[in-house]
Amino acid sequence: MDEATLRTAHAGLLSSEDIGNQVRVAGWVATRRDHGGVLFVDLRDASGIVQVVINPEEQPDLDDVTHALRDEFCISVLGSVRARPEGTINPDLATGEIEIGASEITVLSPADPLPFQIDDRADVDEMRRLEFRYLDLRRPRMAANLLARSRALQAMRSTLADDGFLEVETPTLVKSTPEGARDFLVPSRLRRGSFYALPQSPQLFKQLLMVGGVERYYQIARCYRDEDFRSDRQVEFTQLDLEGAFWGQDQVLAALEPVIAAVVKALRGLDLETPFPRMSHADALARYGTDKPDIRFGMELVELSEVFSATEFKAFSGAVEAGGLIAGINGGGLGLSRAGLDGLVERAQALGAKGLVWMVVEDDGSLRSPVAKFLSDAELGGIKERLGAAVGDTLLIVADSPPTTRAVLGGLRIDLGQPEGHDELQFLWVTDFPVFEVTGEGRLVAAHHPFTAPVDVAEMENHPEDAISRAYDLVLNGTELGSGSERIHDPETQARVFRVLGISDTEAKERFGWFMRGLRYGTPPHAGFAVGIDRIIAILQNEPNIREVIPFPKTQTGLDPLTGTPGPVDDAQLAELGIDLRPEVKAALEEEAGGFETE
Ligand code: ASP
């Protein structure tokens, strides 16, 4: 069988110019409609849809096959292209002016009854869609997402190749790469008791490529992170990973902007304005309450602590004395009822605040609020002035620890102001991230990863909590698209960072000795970045989650409903690897499998 015997034309590309031609098309039965014995089939292939008309009076020998046709059968049709009769032209369809009068139909493959309708309008349970992903991918929306993904990758590759980047693959069976998540482990059969890890990113390999004299590296890299269930994350995902030797932050951002612009051009047909705006991490927190601000709208946080420096209102004075932060946002004319305002208080509490003060500007300019009576006229005036309050506006104020005040107001700002969807695109670089974060248990962890260069190494040792790094993020409409940094390129600084992180020299040598040794051989200063490919495509396609743009995704709990993975393996396979399941794990598996067989 070859294509010429199955088709001579692509369904979606036929037009009135083909009228009178004999063509053969092949594809799937998207819909069938019987109009008084005449069958209308929408035949779909990758290029689109064309209407096929089977008239039993004209073609009595097609009767049997016509009766057998069901949705999603794969068929080949011979027929002649003709103009649709007056009044039946479909302006919504690219091929809506024509149809094919069938003279021969061959069923290439029948299809079982479908688990769901192949139709963008059908609301299908996601587990079911993933279980039958190959059918789900036939839906126009999914086909469009696959096409967009392919175009985005193409745009990335060609822009970077033109800019002198080398595409280099790095291994997937590696020694652990610390990006802050758990590793997936792969047991070795040849060295029983030893394990590979799957890479959380190619971080250390790309740095060693810089040592290896590759001055500009990129890769469309698969990364694996064994994280607890988090919405819109995948245990395996794809990054555009890149690195440049002799580079600092400015060169990385300048190299990335045309790549992002090319992707946006390919998917949206838009010319992005570059360079993208930049904002320091500290400013982002102060103005938007988050390190990934959505700058499509204002409603910025305004610091109010000064207004209340001598306040008698206990909730505010207490917060100021405890080193807290009082800040507010002007939510604009929300027009909320009392219940609506109470809802905002509850939301603020869910975001971590002890409380939320709301104020509504009345027609006479006075402030209506449950706490107004505790505040002086000067304080009320100060609030109005700082928040630029106009009649009808709702003002929201939080007094708490600085991180809580920012997180709560930042969250409310998103709830109240964030536009739906992603018609408008606002990219933003956030720079000057801290070197470390303090965990809930008071432990220091790398805010980006431990290979990121601190701005001042001595300062990092003396005041680790306040130390700034040369790390930067790319943000689009309030979503973090990726991160990068200037790297440490001398082993001594690297060892000092490890020490501050509580990683002893012995442990560092054991875990990263292979990498640190590489740094001893003339390492050029270098910097890089990684962009989450799934995420940028999802946003540009206006999809609500990244699973919609991943051909074969897993669920949020890391399950693949198509293949039923992860699943148990044979005892024999485990024995080869020198692995025994713990008795309690074995018992749980047996119970899950419906008990064990007794003979
Ligand atoms: N490896 C980092 C990450 O996966 C990106 C980078 O620093 O280049 O986030």
Account of the protein in words:
- This protein folds into three domains: 3-109, Beta Barrel (OB fold (Dihydrolipoamide Acetyltransferase, E2P)), CATH 2.40.50.140; 143-280 and 427-549, Bira Bifunctional Protein, Domain 2 (BirA Bifunctional Protein, domain 2, 2-Layer Sandwich); 298-417, 2-Layer Sandwich (Gyrase A, domain 2).
- The longest helix is centred in the first third of the chain and has 23 residues, at 140-162.
- Helix 10 (338-350) packs across helix 12.
- It is 30% helix and 23% strand.
- With 599 residues, it is α+β, with helices and mostly antiparallel strands.
- The site of aspartic acid (ASP) has 9 residues, from strand 21 and strand 22.
- The site of aspartic acid has 9 residues, from strand 21 and strand 22.
Largest sheet, order of strands side by side? 6-9-10-22-21-20-17-11
Mean pLDDT: 95
Q: Radius of gyration, Cα only, in angstroms?
A: 30 Å
Q: What is the third-level CATH name, the topology of the largest domain? A: BirA Bifunctional Protein, domain 2
Distance linking N and C termini: 52 Å
Number of strands: 22
- Portion in beta strands: 15-25%
Total domains, how many?
3
> Helix segment count?
18
The unreliable regions are: none
Shape: globular
* CATH class bucket of the largest domain: Alpha Beta
In CATH, the homologous superfamily of the largest domain goes by the name Bira Bifunctional Protein, Domain 2
Structural class: alpha+beta
